[in-house]
Input
Amino acid sequence: MRALEGKIALVTGAAKRIGRTIALALADAGATVAVTFLSSEEDASGTVLDFAERDAQGMALRCDVRDPLSVTEAVAAVVEEYGGLDLLVNNAGVFETAALEEISVGQWDAMFETNTRGPFLMAQAAHPHLKLARGRIVNVGSLGGMHAWATHGHYCTSKAALHMLTQVMAKAWAPEISVNCVAPGMIVNGETVDAGYEHFAAKTPMGRNGSADEVAAAVLQFATGPHFVTGQILAVDGGLGL
Output
């Protein structure tokens, strides 16, 4: 079942939480995985150590997806270390709750710097290597990019822009590169529902909130499924957005 054996993957923001789960799922599938972090170096190193238990290789490197030089250096380091790049997962992102009328220009720009410009810069830097490998890009969007959340205006708008960027890249970079997006709904960590999120589970047709493992499984679908599938936005939300 190691469908990614021999493939090189780069996952941004993968020191912990959903990014870490995605990286481990790719390692389980046989990929060599490079993970980036901004400040969580110890967590990122721990993620790489966990690859060994999965008979997989990997590396951790600091990358600020807001900084073009940091991005190009990170991609170059992965290619130099492993000889190429087959898969880019743009997971790094930020989330913030704020009343629409109170969002400052600084808050607005900071949200877009990470959630929209970051994936653009990463994809642009990775493009020549992915084109050569006939590779893939999987962006991590959000249900908030498909449905308006009144108290997350800048977040929702940045993720909606990422969804459109996914489709633009899919069209611009075909047929060599497939580009898709996973849009998680309410995802909770741990085995118990976090306090305050029970009402989302009650509104979800599947009767519960989602897990990071389910998001990772969706990323794996795009990473291992038909290359012909491109430009798709897949909601992992248990039907919450219906």
Summary: The chain is about 45% helix and 15% strand. The longest helix spans residues 105-133. Strands lie at 8-11, 32-37, 58-62, 87-90, 136-140, 178-184, 233-236.
